[in-house]
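Researcher: Here's the sequence for the chain we discussed earlier.
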Amino acid sequence: VVDTLTIDPALLLIIVGSLMFLITFLGCFGALRNATCLLKTFLAILAVNFLLQIAAGAVGYVFTDMVMERTEKLMMKTIVGYREDGDLENAIDYIQKKFQCCGVESYEDWSHNVYFNCSESNPSLEACGVPFSCCVRLQNQTVLNTMCGYGMQQEQKGSAKEHIFTIGCLEKIIMWAQNNLLLVGGLTAGLLLLEVGPPPRPLLETFLIPLVPP
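Model: Thanks. This is the structure I predict for it:
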């Protein structure tokens, strides 16, 4: 399922947004109408979601190598699908420009894409090239040169890095996470605290009133 959704980021956003709306609607409507059944359902969904997040974090920590291998495969699949979907293309270009990286492991990964494949039988004008988002922007550059990555796969790494980013995005993202551990940890803790915050008053009354002696 994840492999399919990564090809179309818009579909992923629609599905996640719809689920978030449904869960939030249960809590909001249940609190307004004092519907304990909806509130209990809302609480149960949040509890399951919280436990799944904790379990996913633990599994990711224990099986780090497997997670990294799976992540690399998913990122490589997005490179193969580049130019097939506009949303995916924009997402990849944003990541490469944001983290100043190119490809998954290196800029040569773009040879897996049919448009950038570096072979004599490839009739594409972009053969042996990389997307413009891999290019190093000059300080005084005002006009974007979308052809700056043409033929860069044929260059040696030493000469190529004068024009494009040669480090893969997977390594750059890992480096960013390691350098911002406090930020990542703080955001994660903040999200978890929101999920375990106090439940709505009608739900508290539902569970507490039967415990109060007459």
